[in-house]
């Protein structure tokens, strides 16, 4: 859960973890198996040899840091209809707080008012590249699961009216009050799962991401300068009938260095019906775990709850609730 600022967490159980590293240039059959295994066991994995040129990534990071280096008065002018635009410390609509400032953009039109075309050009190029990567990974997932239509997941984010987002999160250095406790952290972005289909995350070479594979235990993830971090969203857990895990995670601040992450959240159109394909109903999962719903319905629930609240269980079929 997100706690009120200052967000200091002390004495939790912390166990570092190495996420699966998947080389997308390897033999396709191997890659598919590794992705499926990672989604079942971790809900997160890293990919290398992803095909996105390093200069595109570098320029994106440069324009991101340049934006956050602007005076606060200028950043506050970047305002769109909610939830888009610049924000600081306030997360969502229900009182959650974090040691973070952010820029949230529509991934289909990733630009900001009154800025140079250079920003828009760089961010648009980056967004298109990670969108293609997301589609490639989603199709590998579908094939690995044995779904006859390999584009069953990726088609959601290629439709013109998709609801995908691009989010820059900037975590300035924040010293924790309890320096003598190695398990002391300030929360930058509190515990949550991603509601969309798939997230493609890039961060500068500063640690901060932590995932929770077991209740009460947090697993810090070491950033890799050559990799993208990929994680399963709530919708993908539903569409795989619970076979893939949408894992809770958070970001903590660093005492000495700024951390910036850029997340592409692949989401369907608002009217898209979210339901597992029939091939996902198996002897191990003989019925649908979740009731069908639209993305608009799920998004409405997401916005009505606190960041750390469990949303996905609201849509479980009654026979699946213990």
Topology (elements, then pairings):
Elements lengths: L7 E2 L3 E2 L6 E3 L4 H14 L2 E5 L5 H15 L3 H4 L9 E7 L4 E11 L10 H29 L9 H4 L6 E7 L13 E8 L5 E6 L5 E6 L2 E4 L7 E5 L1 H6 L8 E5 L6 E8 L6 E2 L18 E2 H10 L18
Parallel strand pairs: 2-11, 3-4
Antiparallel strand pairs: 1-8, 4-12, 5-6, 6-7, 7-14, 8-13, 9-12, 9-14, 10-11, 10-13, 15-16
How many beta strands in the DSSP annotation? 16
Alpha plus pi helix count: 7
Please state roughly what percent of the residues sit in beta strands, choosing from under 5%, 5-15%, 15-25%, 25-35%, 35-45% or over 45%: 25-35%
> C-alpha Rg, in Å?
19 Å
Poorly predicted sequence stretches spanning 5 or more consecutive residues: 1-8, 178-182
Structural class of the secondary elements? alpha+beta
Q: Which percent bin holds the helix content? A: 25-40%
Strand order of the largest sheet: 3-4-12-9-14-7-6-5
General form: globular
Q: How do the helices and strands follow one another from N- to C-terminus?
A: EEEHEHHEEHHEEEEEEHEEEEH
Overall average pLDDT: 91
Main beta-sheet annotation: 8 strands, mixed
Task: Offer a concise description of the structure.
It is built from 7 helices and 16 strands. By secondary structure, it is an alpha+beta fold.
């Amino acid at each position: 859960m997100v706690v009120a600022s200052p967000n200091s967490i002390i004495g939790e159980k912390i166990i570092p973890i190495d996420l699966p590293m998947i080389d997308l240039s390897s033999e396709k059959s191997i890659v598919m198996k590794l992705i499926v295994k990672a989604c079942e066991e971790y809900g997160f994995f890293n990919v290398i040899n992803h095909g996105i040129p390093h200069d595109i990534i570098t320029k994106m990071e440069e324009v991101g840091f340049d934006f956050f280096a602007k005076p606060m008065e200028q950043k506050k002018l970047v305002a769109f209809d909610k939830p888009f635009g610049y924000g600081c410390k306030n997360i969502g609509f229900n009182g959650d707080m974090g040691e973070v400032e952010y820029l949230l953009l529509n991934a289909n039109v990733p630009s900001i008012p009154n800025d140079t075309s250079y920003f828009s050009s760089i961010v648009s190029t980056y967004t298109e590249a990670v969108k293609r990567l997301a589609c490639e990974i989603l199709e590998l997932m579908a094939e690995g699961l044995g779904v006859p239509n390999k584009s069953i997941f990726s088609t959601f984010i290629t439709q013109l009216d998709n609801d995908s987002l691009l989010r820059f999160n900037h975590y300035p250095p924040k010293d924790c009050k309890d320096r003598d406790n190695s398990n002391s952290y300030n929360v930058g972005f509190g515990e949550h799962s991603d509601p969309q289909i798939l997230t493609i995350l890039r961060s500068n070479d500063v640690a901060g991401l932590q995932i929770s594979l077991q209740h009460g235990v947090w697993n810090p993830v070491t950033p890799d300068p050559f990799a993208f971090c990929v994680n399963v969203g709530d919708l993908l857990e539903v569409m795989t009938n619970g076979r893939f895990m949408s894992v809770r995670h958070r970001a903590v601040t660093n005492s000495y260095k700024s951390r910036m992450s850029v997340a592409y959240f692949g989401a369907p159109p608002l009217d898209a019906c979210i339901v597992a394909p029939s091939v996902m109903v198996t002897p191990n999962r003989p019925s649908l775990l979740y009731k069908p719903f639209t993305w608009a319905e799920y998004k409405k629930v997401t916005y009505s709850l606190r960041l750390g609240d469990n949303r996905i269980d609201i849509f479980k079929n009654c026979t699946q609730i213990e």
